């Protein structure tokens, strides 16, 4: 057990301040304690983006100069998918002091796009050694960057493989914790799920009347807002909506806003609820197939998405949100749904805020409902328990399931394929793509590839990603200062996720600012953006051509226009446009009009 004050969301481990890392290490790699401290610092850097963008791997990098100085001369962390890699930031900060230096990374670089950007940055900067806290959890990326770096002549030491000791093991654990969502996603094919609740000292989450505001202190509630901001989505049950009418906002003044998810079998929900206001953030209601069809139509009229399941249970729901690309889920539900989620094996970590209050009540609800256990020996034990005082409350946290240890995993898929050419990991007539970390993640509009497009004045404008370009063009050409401000705000968004959130939110809040012809021109805007992207980057062009003979499907289970849908019911326009572009590049459709292909 560990006592921690101010511990990070994922970790009970306290990471040392930067000042302790000067003169930390030489290229000989002989001091495990100092090298472990540097990798832990990289993990601390990686955690800096939490609460602002999601989902993406948490990557941090720092560069230590060579030549006997051993000073930390450059640091960086990945702000969001589609933004500058941590390794590039670190070497840019270090400049010429990289020569002969060592790079320390909490996570193996993940080249999802065929760019080799992170690897190239380290090589071209003159780094001679890389120390990696852990291999990449995703199988199609695992070992690739390590092999490339070694192929370029760098010495690469991987914790748990090339470097082994008790302190190295602890540092590697810190690396796994800071990327727990990605690790769990890879190992269990469900998002990393955290259960949070506040209870009195006698174990009640509400009075017998159901009143629950407020059990915990204001400081504890601020911590809850932080937990929300670090999550892709928040789950509540129908009873919570009926009794508490929550907003489920992060309330941190900007940055990433988690999706709100309501799980209800009966769909017996009030017509008026804060969660039906989607002006700032969307809400998804998951329910049993066929439940209250009239109310489903009502929610749809409010812009609330409804997803039906044949049998509603937490595991099926989490597998669905895994398919949607979610990495981390925060559960803030009542005892019945909590017990069902725990029994389904989808809860991985618990945060329990215990207030120094006693309320009593034989019928007052407790945080976890019936689990079917009759003896104390059946109780579930938390792992890596951490205690932290938050104002007058005590925060007890720990893992219900151990973090999967994915190292060492050798040979990787690529290494196996090299040994046996008959093993081809991605041999399929249908190629699915969605998130940037997928094998064909470069096809995503969120991939980090700036493009150039002609604006309404005939001048070339540069956009950070295709998503920036697409979202901004909803407001291009509208004769209104506010519309022009929308374009500039989206264009300057720090990440494609933020550009998408801004564009969708502004479209909902100010439909009068959206160009009148948007529905008729949006396909053409997307196609021109894709054409720019694949013409600027030869390796992307080659990647697209390599899929000849395969059907391309954007595997979004919820976007029925651009994606393929949950059960293939989507129109898959993004996949269609990529296939059309592929045909054009191959010269196969020079006389075929765009309208003919899109109507197929």
Q: Architecture of the largest domain, CATH level 2?
A: 3-Layer(aba) Sandwich
Strand order of the largest sheet: 1-14-15-13-7-12-8-9-10-11
Q: Look at the structure and give the CATH class of the largest domain.
A: Alpha Beta
Total individual domains: 3
Mean pLDDT over all positions:
87
Number of helices: 19
Cα(first) to Cα(last) distance is 61 Å
Which percent range describes the beta-strand content? 15-25%
**CATH homologous superfamily identity of the largest domain:** Dihydrofolate Reductase, subunit A
Can you tell me the residue ranges where pLDDT is under 50 for at least 5 consecutive residues?
Answer: 1-29, 408-413, 589-600
**Residues in helix, %:** 25-40%
Give a topology summary:
Layout: E1 2-3, H1 32-46, E2 60-64, E3 72-77, H2 86-94, E4 102-105, H3 117-124, E5 129-132, H4 144-151, E6 155-158, H5 166-178, H6 180-188, E7 192-200, H7 218-229, E8 233-237, H8 238-244, E9 259-264, E10 283-288, H9 293-301, E11 305-309, H10 314-323, E12 328-331, H11 335-343, E13 349-355, E14 383-390, E15 393-399, H12 413-419, E16 430-433, E17 451-454, E18 460-463, H13 466-472, H14 481-491, H15 496-509, H16 518-536, H17 538-545, E19 551-554, H18 573-586, H19 594-598
Parallel strand pairs: 1-14, 4-5, 5-6, 7-12, 7-13, 8-9, 8-12, 9-10, 10-11, 16-19
Antiparallel strand pairs: 2-3, 2-4, 13-15, 14-15, 17-18
Helix pairs in contact: 1-5, 2-3, 13-14, 13-15, 14-15, 16-17, 16-18
